[in-house]
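User: Hi! I'm working on a homework problem where we have to compare a predicted structure to a textbook description. Could you give me the structure for the chain below?
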Amino acid sequence: MFFLKYKNFYFLKLISFFVLLILISIFSLLYGYYDITFYDLKLFFFNKNISQEKLIIINEIRLPRLVLAFLCASILSVSGLLLQGIFKNSLVDPFVLGISGTASLGAGIGIILNKNLLGLKLYIFTIIFIFNIRTCFYI
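Assistant: Happy to help. Predicted structure tokens:
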């Protein structure tokens, strides 16, 4: 009987965190420099008629920012899980392999050189990636 209560507690925690995630996501879509009402957000998601400026704000600024926040959080959690799995140590961090130091060095070099690749600022990220791969080969 105790196990059943214990299992329901974790399920309740999972559901409450998911609801909190949805509420925070809605909050981040609504509030900013230009306030958007909940009614406007509802019109946006149900493909109804919405003003052009609100459509641009939601579609080109706030929604991509929200999606990128989810992607960055998931990538960071997976990378932490991989490091902990490789070293079998729950206290491992990116400083163990020197990942943070080489990323900083690569970012510094990329900022100093300040080149554009394909019209985008991908040069800095390319140098960071190259320096991190180089660190992994040395180890």
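For your comparison, note the following. The helical segments are 2-30, 38-45, 52-87, 99-113, 123-138. Residues 52-87 form the longest helix (36 residues). Good luck with the assignment!
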